[in-house]
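Rotation project, supervised by the postdoc (A.L.). Task for the rotation student: set up a whole-complex structure prediction and record inputs and outputs verbatim in this book. Inputs entered:
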Amino acid sequence: MEFAKKQSKIDTILRSVDKLPTLPIIYTKLNQLLQSPNATVKMIGSIIAEDQSMAVKVLRLVNSAFYGLPNKIGNLKHAIVILGLNQIRTLVLTTSTLKLFHNLKTTRAFDMQKFWKHSVGCAVAARVLAETASLRSPDDVFAGGLLHDIGKLIHAVYLTEEFSAVVAEVNECGVPMVTSERRVIGYDHTYTGKELAIRWNLSEGTIDMIAHHHLSDPATTLTKEIAAVYLGNIFSIALGLGAGGEKKVPIADTNAWDILGIELSHLESIITRIDKVFAESIAILEA
Amino acid sequence: MGLLSINDLQIGMVIACEVANKHGNVLLKRGEILNERHIMLLKSWGITEADVEGFDRDQLVQKEREELSPDTVASIEQELTALFPGLGDNPLMKELYRVVKKFKMKQASAQVHGIRKEAE
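Outputs recorded:
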């Protein structure tokens, strides 16, 4: 099959909207509201309150050790003010994708639970890197990390047979997943992920982080945000936080580390922090 | 003396070389005996390592290694060898390997201590 033909196949999959996983309404609503200059805490609170499990998670997050507040917060509006809108958006996105993953059936080749943890692991690692490098929006980097492998999900659900062959090859030969995907399917999960992200109307920054998290296209301009997600993925694999199907830790391109401007002696405290925040995040999200 | 990661500093250790923040202000003088406040101070300034008397990284790794059974150490090493490709002379990957290995050993040793405590 030549590339154009394969491309039209993924187009067909992605265009059949009724079959395509969608982000829950609450995320879309909240995102729209957060972009409006007239958004108030009350309006945001009422959207979140519609979803009981979301409201519980917001309260649990604000009362977690992470914030170390002296008093317990029981009021949703109060919690939103403390967490800030970006945190809220990240939490809603994370919870939404968790639901999305759980609603899809796990095939033998693809352990959804481990995949979900790998996504959170990469998101946490990318955010810790973004914070250490003082990037402008660590929360956006978190979102990029969370969704970086979303293309694999499409492959697992809609190209079940081909993807099983990919997983088998990765397991038996230890090749990088993108290599096997390109050979078996014709394109890799960064391409599918990018196409899905475009159809989900995600921000350009998020689309770029998904599309380039393997730095496989040499023509890509390496931004700090892309570097954080790229390294976040590698670190989460090295630490064994969940599993995205990769058998080996990819060898990191040192340019990605250099562009973040972090000294190598910081790596140990970065890794320690990633592990701690990961455990906390999983505890809050799974509760 | 030896350069230790902030995570390995312990109360009672003696500072071998003065520690300054990024503005050049001295936070801890040579000869100072570490207390809890000192460690908090270093952390709040984002200091990642300090030189202390009588300890070094290799020694600590050795100590941790001795606490674990050879089987545990071997299985950690085996797991990481399978996971990490040849590192070559990529400084980032070498450091990542070192840190992750140390981390896994620490987790294993915490588990051993946990079991011992429970037994007591």
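Student's summary: Chain A touches chain B through 23 residues (CB under 8 Å).
Supervisor addendum: The first helix of chain A runs from residue 3 to 15.
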